[in-house]
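Re: that backbone. Tokens:
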């Protein structure tokens, strides 16, 4: 939610800020703005996408080599020009941008109004600016610390302060922020892609730290104003991860990057047919592992349900799957013999992070499956397995989802082996199947053509259903989420056996149903379910393994995907579902990468 950039150097700041915002636009895109410090501070902000802002910036042409920028996902106040960031304080002491939510903003605002402060916007952000202005004691850092003491909620803030014309200041709590170290220039950003064209050397800002950057210096202060050591890390991400590389949309590129994403994820975990995790579970888990929780949001939650099917079958340990926004408030029963797994592409999702902290307080061993290096969830977990999918820019996840699935396979096999339920030889066979997945995913991508054809039909519909059983069921939830979030066609994913408990009344002639049927043991039952909806006029697209016979007799269209072990089929089945969502959205002329109202990284609860 919301992207922040900052720059201090010798080059003109505006183009660098705009380029950084473009790379962060996936975080929010209802308005954008920059503030540049040249001969005084110039603020330019516009409603809508970065292109609108670019137009205004070209007209105004702000000079100056120091600045901050923001792309917004509205929380407080309509997505219009006035509420767009940056916000400037009444006396012009500070101009700032903010990502997060200030929970006590009303109380602070009323107090500041009583003190004579006048507000222009409806945002919680403007409160930070006016508060800083009110508290200003002539020292930028001590005022920042005093401001932070009064704020409740989450924030990453970057600011220009009057009288400090060669510097940008920043602070953060529960919202991500990095500092990029260049040569005679330094950067601030919410996420790594923003600074990739300039540097890979970063400082990952911690909660409660206060930042001062100038072109040759990065200073970090703690809450008592003491300077801290700046530990620079080099981020290993290629710049083309954040480029479309000839594809029309990031989503298409990322769908096609899945073989590589899976390979890069599993390769470091499998050595000569043995599984090597990058951390150790507590010794006591060998005997006493009681339960596994998987906690996540959205597509990552679907990974959790898939994990339940696989782990319970392979490892015979109960798996609870929770939506993070529920888990954190439902007083879950967890303790030291439980393993809590947190799945997150961004590693910053507010609810998932809060759930992780809750699980730690309750004494569970926590591990995370995270894509963004050094993100907060990764740093705060007891153990982390990275999905090396590379930067994922399209709002709808695809390659990170596939990489997460592959971690679940490896983890399940590891736990089964630890429990003595899989022998060394069985592990060798299973891991060799996992290593064949990238090639098979490449073959599965051949269904691009048929999904494009089918999308022409789906794009004319207002509703669609995805049905499946067993391990295909969570994939139906995922296929449904993917299609609805980007094409705006209402979809539901259902356990096929559950349909007649209500939803079948919605089936009418022409209703499109995607029926996923890859599990041999449940195939006969799926055929019966397909017949039931077909008899009521549904148009059925079946997704099955290659070699499935007789399916053409019951379905209107069939998409075949390569065969694999039953546990690994989700990696192949998901491909046509992603492509159906992608092509349908293109067919409808919508913005595939930036669906309305959404943002990639959900850092507010
Ligand atoms: C859907 C999608 C979202 C995310 C969810 C969690 O395509 O991308 O549902 O899966 O917002 O985000 P992360 O994985 O960053 O925690």
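Recovered sequence:
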């Amino acid at each position: 939610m919301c992207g922040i950039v900052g720059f201090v150097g010798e080059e003109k700041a505006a183009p660098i800020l705009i380029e950084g915002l473009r790379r962060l636009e996936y975080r929010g895109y209802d308005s954008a703005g920059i503030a540049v410090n040249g001969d005084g501070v110039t603020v330019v902000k516009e409603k809508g996408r970065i292109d609108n802002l670019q137009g205004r910036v070209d007209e105004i042409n702000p000079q100056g080599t120091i600045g901050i920028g923001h792309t917004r996902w509205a929380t407080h106040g309509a997505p219009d020009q006035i509420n767009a960031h940056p916000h400037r304080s009444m006396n012009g002491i500070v101009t700032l941008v903010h990502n997060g939510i200030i929970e006590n903003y009303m109380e602070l605002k009323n107090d500041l109004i009583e003190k004579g402060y006048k507000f222009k916007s409806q945002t919680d952000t403007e409160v930070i600016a006016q508060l800083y202005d009110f508290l200003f004691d002539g020292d930028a850092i001590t005022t920042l610390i005093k401001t932070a003491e009064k704020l409740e909620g989450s924030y990453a803030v970057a600011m220009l302060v009057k009288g400090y014309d060669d510097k940008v200041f920043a602070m953060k709590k529960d919202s991500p922020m990095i500092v990029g170290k260049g040569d005679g220039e330094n950067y601030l950003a919410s996420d790594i892609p923003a600074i990739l064209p300039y540097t890979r050397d970063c400082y990952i800002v911690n909660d409660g730290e206060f930042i001062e950057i100038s072109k040759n210096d990065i200073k970090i202060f703690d809450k008592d104003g003491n300077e801290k050591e700046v530990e620079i890390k080099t981020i290993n991400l290629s710049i083309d991860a954040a480029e479309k590389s000839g594809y029309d949309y990031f989503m298409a590129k990322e769908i096609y990057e899945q073989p590589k994403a899976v390979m890069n994820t599993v390769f470091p975990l499998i050595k000569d047919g043995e599984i090597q995790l990058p951390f150790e579970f507590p010794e006591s888990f060998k005997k006493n592992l009681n339960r596994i929780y998987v906690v996540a949001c959205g597509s990552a939650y679907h990974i959790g349900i898939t994990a339940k099917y696989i782990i319970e079958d392979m490892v015979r340990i109960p798996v609870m799957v929770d939506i993070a926004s529920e888990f954190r408030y439902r007083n879950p029963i967890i303790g030291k013999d439980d393993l809590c797994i947190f799945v997150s592409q961004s590693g910053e999702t507010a609810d998932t992070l809060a759930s992780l902290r809750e699980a730690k307080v309750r004494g569970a061993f926590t591990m995370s499956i995270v894509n963004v290096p050094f993100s907060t969830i990764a740093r705060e977990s007891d153990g982390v397995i990275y999905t090396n999918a590379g930067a994922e820019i399209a709002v709808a996840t695809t390659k990170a989802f596939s990489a997460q699935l592959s971690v679940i396979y490896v983890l399940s096999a590891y736990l089964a082996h630890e429990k003595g339920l899989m022998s060394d030889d069985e592990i060798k066979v299973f891991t060799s199947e996992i290593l064949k997945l990238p090639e098979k995913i490449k073959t599965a991508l051949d269904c691009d053509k048929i999904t494009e054809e089918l999308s022409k039909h789906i794009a004319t519909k207002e509703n669609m259903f995805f049905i499946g059983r067993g391990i295909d069921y969570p994939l139906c939830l995922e296929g449904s989420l993917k299609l609805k979030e980007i094409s705006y066609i209402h979809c539901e994913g259902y356990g096929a056996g559950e349909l007649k408990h209500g939803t079948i009344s919605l089936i009418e002639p022409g209703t499109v149903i995607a029926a996923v049927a890859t599990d041999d043991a449940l195939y006969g039952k799926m055929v019966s379910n397909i017949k039931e909806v077909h008899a009521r006029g549904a148009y059925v697209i079946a997704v099955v393994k290659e070699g499935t016979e007789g399916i053409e007799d019951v379905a209107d269209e069939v998409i075949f995907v390569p065969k694999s072990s039953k546990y690994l089929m989700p990696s192949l089945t998901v491909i046509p579902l992603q492509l159906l969502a992608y092509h349908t959205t293109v067919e409808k002329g919508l913005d595939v990468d930036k669906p309305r109202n959404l943002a990639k990284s959900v850092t507010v609860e």
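The chain is about 35% helix and 25% strand. The chain has three domains: 3-235, 240-435, 443-590.
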